[in-house]
Every structure is written in C-alpha cells, then in structure tokens.
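Entry under discussion copied across for reference:
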Amino acid sequence: MRNSIKILISAILVIALLVPATTVAASFELPEFLRVGLYFGSNARANMRITSPDGLRLGFYEGTQFTPIWQTSGNVIIRKDTHFAASAAGVNGIAEVGAGAAQWGPFHVQYFANVPIYQAQARIDELAAHGIHAYVAVIGLATHIWGGTHVSYVAASAAAASSPIPGASVAPVSDRRINVMCAERMETVLVFGHMTLGLGVRPVPEDIENQRFHIYTASQLNYRGGLDFIRLDGGDMTVTNVVHLEHYLYHVVPREMPATWPIEALKAQAVAARNFAVSAGDRHREMPFNLCNTVHCQVYLGTTPEIASAVQAVNETRGQVLLFNGVPARVFYSSSFGGPSDYSQNVWMQAIPYLVPVSNHYENTENINNGVWTNTMTVQQVTDRMNARGQGVGTVTNIEVLETTRAGNVLRVRVTGTQGYRDILREQARIAFAPATLSQRFAVARGGQGPSVLAVPNIDGGTSGGVTATQTIHTIDGSGNVSATNRQNIYVMTGSGLQTRNLGATAQPPQSGGNIAYITAYGTDPNVFYFAGRGWGNPVGMSQFGALGMANAGYTFDQILTHFFPGTYMSR
C-alpha cells in the first residue's frame, strides 16, 4: 500500500508541475503587420500609378503605424519630384526626362509656411481664387502651401515675383521629395519630403478587411494594406507594402504550395510561412522592410488571386506558430528533398537544434516535378563559372564529391584544373553549379571517365515516415480543473530532483537502415560534366512534397510540422 501511495503522489507531482503551452507562448507577441518590399534596388520605381475605389489617404508610416495628413481621389500617380514629361512610351503615360524636355519640374513656389493642417484647404482655396493651383507640401513633417511644378529656378522665381501673396519664394530643391499627382487632371495634390520617413499611402476604409488598392504595372497587381514610398540616397522610390500578417499569408501560401493540395498540408504551409515571416531577422537590415516578395524570402504577389482553400488554411491556423523554448522557431522549407532532411550546419554552418535529419518516406520523389533530375555543363562552362566565382583553377579537368553528410548530401566537392584545385563546401557545392544542380544531393561525373554514384540513406530504417503516435496527457490544476497539455517542457520530480521532459510526437532519431536510393551520374562526352540528383531546394526543415504525402496518409498539420521540426511544438 505504501508503494502505491508513493506512485500516486509522484503521478500527482508530475501532473501538477506541467507547464501549459499558453505560459510558454506568452513570452512573445506576434506582430500584427509586416513591411514587405515590393520594388527596391534595381527594381525601384521612378513613378507608380495607384487606384482605390473609395479614395486614398496620404501621410507617413513610422514602422507599421500610419499617420494620415491629407485625403485625395482614388487615382493618383506617385513620382519622384524631378523633371517629367508626358510620354506614350513612358510608364503610366509619363517619363523622367532632362530639364530641357520637361513638362513638370522640381521647382515650387512657397506661398504659406508652417500652416496648421486644418487651415490648409482654406489657403489652397484662397490661391485658387487668384488662378493659382496650390497644394499641401509636407517637408520635415511641417505643413506648407506650395504651387507650381516649374522646370527651372528662373520660371519659379518669376511666378513668385508675380504672386498676389506677399512673401512668396522658391522652395529649395531636394532629391528626397516625392510628388503625388491626380491621374485624371495630371496636377500635383501633395509633395512630401523627409530625410528618413517615406510617403505613406493607404486606402480610405478604416476596416483593414476593405483596404485594397491596385498597382498599375506590367502584372496589374492588387494588394491589401498600404504603401510606403521612400527615396533612399535620393534615387528611385523603394516601395514597401505594409500589410496585416494574416492577409500577407493569404497570398504567400498558394504561391508557395498548390492550393489544390489537402487542407492539412496547406495548414502546415501556413504555419511554416507565418513562422518564417516573424523570424526572418535581418535578411534586409539595410532596407526599410522586413521581408521581400521574392523567393529570397517568400513569394508574395498581392491579392492576385485570393484562393479559398489557402484563406481557409490561414484562418484555421490564425495566430499559430511553431515554438522552440517559448519563441517562434526559424522554419525553412523546400519543394522536395529526394531523401531525408539534414542538419542545418551541413548547409549553412549554423547548428539549430530542431533542424536535424528526419525521415521523408512520404515524399514520392520519383513522381514529382524535379524530384529526380539530370543536367550537364561543358568543361568550358564550369571553367568560366569557377573564374566568375573568383575560384579559378585553370581549365577544369575533374569534379569529385569528396565527402557527404550522414543524410546523403554533398558536404565537400573538389574542382580540379590545370592550375590546382578548389574545395567547395556545404550549400556552395550546389550554388557553384546552379542551375545544373537543383539540390545538394547529387552525383557528378566527367564524360568517358565512368559513373559516379551517391547513396541516399534510410535514416530511420522503416517506412513509417518516422512519426510516433501521440498519447494525450492531461493536467490537474490546484482548482481540480483537467485540461490537455502540449506535452512540451513538462517538469518531472525524479530521484535526481526536478527535471524537464519533452514528450511530444517527433521524428525517430537517425539510425542506420540501408539506402533508399542510389544516384548515378554518367556520360560519354569528355567535354561535358554530367550531374544527376534528387530533390529541389535546400534539404533543411520541411519537404513540401513530403508534407503532401503525410497529409494524404492522414497526418494533421501539427503532426507534419513536429515531425519535420523535432523538439518544436505548436503555440496553442
């Protein structure tokens, strides 16, 4: 009886000391909005036309907080405040030109300085009575009333001299200013200039569900949220979409995964994309946004289209992220792996506890796009590539895989030439020969020198996908309330004292279990290198086609995620 009491007391201690997920999750707060770069660098814009059915508010963003200043029609052209002219060949019917050919210029007459914003319209109306088209100019967050878009200082000076308003003067020119024009009348409605802040533009509705606008580009894209325009270093305009996190995901999910896939796979993708968005860190630390809209971060092309299944996947996982030690995990995913996943340090050098090898048996590698692939590069192409990388070895004579990881990816490849050799490590082994190499899991052989073979290991020795069953554990609190736990960070009283246990469903640890495939590269032309491989993308984190297979096999989105990211758990 005494032993039974001890067992009962120990069980109660274990149950009472369990830490619920809500406590762990409380250590972080998801951002409500994101800043996503749309046009930047070489794609920054000289001008852009925007429409919104209910009109637009003009102001500025500080981070994701918008401060409105002025309201205008829902059809505007936003451009650099410099020399432009009407042009049928130009974007939005205008083109940046030299001063001699300009129709609009950066020289403005200042009629009233430091005007309270509530008096601005009265001052504009006063000038209109004198036949002068005037508008608000927000310079360094001070409000002025300006007029004219003169192409030269001489022309602006003449306008100031003939002003019916005493004290009119020519405003200094600045390469930071942005000009907003009414697209119907082709007249300026606001000029904005600030050394660190950009012009903010947001649709009139306060309800974020109805804040939508259209950007006139070759792609004719629609977006939610608002836009931030800033001229970095006085150049073209860097354009950022300030968008609600969940609205952003509506459009990332179907761009990253086919919307026709099972809902549990889409939900896994939604959580993975949410994790990536909130933990992207300093990928663009020199730019005024958190994420870009390309494959460098996550593909995001606005609301074109907005697909019901993707919206459902986002809504059904709203606010949920994958956690590790109470904070969002850094989540990565690729189309396919062609075998098990790998340690993050075998790709990027940095070891991350939950980015480790797990099985990927549900990925139907042989029957998916680029699951199994072959490509070639000529000797001259490889030689040119090595020279372009600053790793020239003369004329390349051989490429040899010297070392592979336990999961069967290339860790070190040696390129030998007439002037020596270079060893290329980890992810660079794939990048060095891309696009001939779609993944880090490849074999390579020079034509006429016999085949090269790379084995793809079975790291768990089975075909279960490495997912263990999850048994629900319940907790009893001090008031006698019973609830299920997430099985993570469980405190257990043992003979050695209080210890933490993790009982969540995870992948089986790597074990030897033979090989699931062999990759053979072979060809006959001695002037060609033959590449053969499996998988598409980096072999770290979640295989999207593996997630598809698991969803088809009946696994839920959280089981899929905790399999590919062992040691993590859902926030709720």
Notes: Residues 1-26, 461-512 have pLDDT under 50 and may be disordered.
